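Help wanted!
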Amino acid sequence: MLDFTTLPYVDDRFKAVRRETVQVRVGEALIGGNAPILVQSMTTTKPKDVDETVRQTLALAKAGCGLVRITTPTFADAAGLEDVMKRVRAAGCTVPVSADIHFQPKAAFEALKWVEKVRINPGNFVDTGILTLDQQTDKLFDEGKEKVAEAFTPFVQEAKRLGRAIRIGVNHGSLSARMIYRYGDTVEGMVESALEYLAVCEAEHFDQVVLSLKSSNPRVAIAAYRLLAARLKQENFKPYPFHVGVTEAGAGADGRLKSAAGIGALLLDGLADTIRVSLTEDPVAEVPVAQDLIEACELKADAPKFEVPVFKKDPYHYERRESSVVKIAGVEIGGSLPVKVGVKSDAASLTGERRGPEFALAGFDASAGANIVTFKDAMDVAGFAANSASVPAGSIFCYTGSDMVYGVRALASALAAADRKDPILLYAKIGSSDKDMLRVSADFGSLLTDGLGDAVVIDGYKGAKESVALAFDILQAAACRRSKTNFISCPGCGRTLYDIRTVLGKIKERFGHLQDISIAVMGCIVNGPGEMADADFGYVGGGPGRITLFEGKTAVKKNIPEENAIEELVNLLKEKGRWVEP
Ligand code: SF4
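Answered by r_m:
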């Protein structure tokens, strides 16, 4: 097991600096090195639909997308990229294009001829899932390694010959049974999947490689990328750039918050070199969100230095920081209680409603009845680290300065060094812009993933009610606390078998009143079931005009006509006792 205290993923967890990486050229775009973080997106078409693929590619480039990815499900689609590229270039558009390949090594080879970059998925490039988990053995695991080298080496050689880049793109939902057999369904399995393919690239002295480890759970994605950075160092691989994303984030504000909680946290760790925000919306809508997120999470060269003991908390495996139970304005927080949401107001604003504020924070000073100790900068934190007895036990610790992620981490480290378990309040005073919303989700997402935070208060976002709603939504986005229906939905791509955006809207309308349930809406049966994470129920495209409904990972109603599918999902929930009339 990796020793995180001697092999950290960044040099300083209290002050992020962008990780130094190899620079990868993808046509006219550069990823990593000292290049700006590149925004990318994906068309929702197959290359065989040349007109629409070209139209979407041009629209994305015009919107500021620095790299366009195209689903390439078959060899014929890969061959179709030739026409797409001719038309895109004839239109005077120089945006680099990447082909997205699952299951089809032959299509990957063909795509190399026409586009600047090809993404392959180690979960299915060789390990096609023919063998189930219970059929795996140690011998097969080792033989599988040889098969990977055998199949992937010629592909790497061809990419090198043609001057193309490769993305080794692992998805949590499509880890091979072979990897799960060896490492479990874990971030270690995700990382080792990537490293196995990367070893083949290095054996061929090919370094034009970008790595990604995506998950629909921001907590998993954050841990996986951190562990990857650490393992690359440990195994003496070159520092390859990272393509960072959270899959199946959904749509609207929830999709943006979930993306920010995961991608934003990694931007704040200095680990992202190119990002894609996946939304179940028009792909063009992803571009400004990604741009805003990069801007909102820009690392400051003059960020303060926190002089505190080494932060020993494991960044690769989630565990909530142990804290004692303390009352804030008469309400208990900490211990194993859920992370509570407060409002910056007086007690009169407490309504007792679900998703209403659970405590009121009138102010920080003792006259407001609060036992909160605030730390406004690195000096305050260092002062506590030097003399922990200066703060009475049973206080609530709150960092209110700039660079919140590093400040709260530093505070937690100082508390740990003093063997103190006082709870931590995450407090953010923000404005009302989209960037403010994204940044606070990134800050809280990062800290909650570190297991830090016993209560949260957002102050100033539009109004008190909106601030409280935002806090609940971020807790849900960060996989920390569920307070409303959790919708997981893929962004749609060339494999999508129905009008996913319209259907998602209808499903949200029909099921949005359910409070403790997770529903996945996925475009295809090929990747959908694997990618829908831990959803309770799934609505998955089974074929043209056909939907397959899942309970967990099990298909329970197969290929039902699309026109009946939403009502069939209601019936399924009724059968399982999970339906409540609105
Ligand atoms: S689940 Fe299927 S349809 Fe949805 S984005 Fe993934 S491959 Fe495309």
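OP: Thanks! One thing I noticed: The chain has a mean pLDDT of 93.
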